[in-house]
Amino acid sequence: MENYILYYYNLSIKNVVKLDSYYYFTTDSDTFYFCKTEYEEKRLEELNENVKVNPKYHLMIRNRFYKFLSSYEDSNYVLVRINTLLNDYVTFDDLLYGNKIRMDKSMVDWPKIWQAKIDYMEEQMKELGVGKEVLIHSFSYYIGLGENAISYYNYNKPVSKNISMCHFRMNNPILPVNYYHPLSLIPDYDVRDYAEYFKVSFFNDMLDMKDVSKFIFDNRYDYNDMILFYSRMLYPTYYFDLFECSITDNVLEKRIMDVITKSDKYEMLLKDIYYEIRKKYNIPGIDWLIKKSN
To answer: Against a cut of 0.85, is the pTM above it?
Structure first.
């Protein structure tokens, strides 16, 4: 690795650590991630143009051939220089009020991708689900939630102009090393980040309903944004992400159990959010959810 980086980037590195999908290392003055990616060069060029307007985002480094992509051990990688402190934090107010990188359109068709994910997982369950008791007894419930999210979106047909560079997934606490990582970004509706942040906060026992209300009553977001937001809150990314790992790894079934045991409380959260939104916008409800929660 040291010789490779020296040749391709003219950097003398140390403290190399190999992790799942990237390498971490330092120089005398900087910290770097060498990240595996499936992006093509053109997409990386576009991404670089988008993020360079905000100096907080980590810098993607070109190699000696003036390319972002470098091939290493039969995989494509991108070198990223970290521009923030590794132990710093991003607050929810930073997320809500910080400068967003505005985009013209979302790259994601939510109902199409969600349905494809459900179809794929149903096939996975048929082929690999034998003996996975935790998954067997919970799978149908979360597939039903996902289908509710799709139906809710398709019935209401929301259209929003609030589109920015969002994140594939959010964490709580929000670490700048992740938040400002360009390879974690995707052009999508603003509400994606809020919904994913609130979901992970709930399951980490860190959700503050004041933050939810702060978002709902932000005048930048209208009826259509609330439909998008509620659709995304319905869609159980938190379960589906774990499912994809648990189907081949028994160890992760405990984390699935942690999610399942909170299903009733999450339904109550969905009810509370629905009524909070209704204080501002008369959005449709989910009948079975409202009746069951009451």
So the answer is: yes
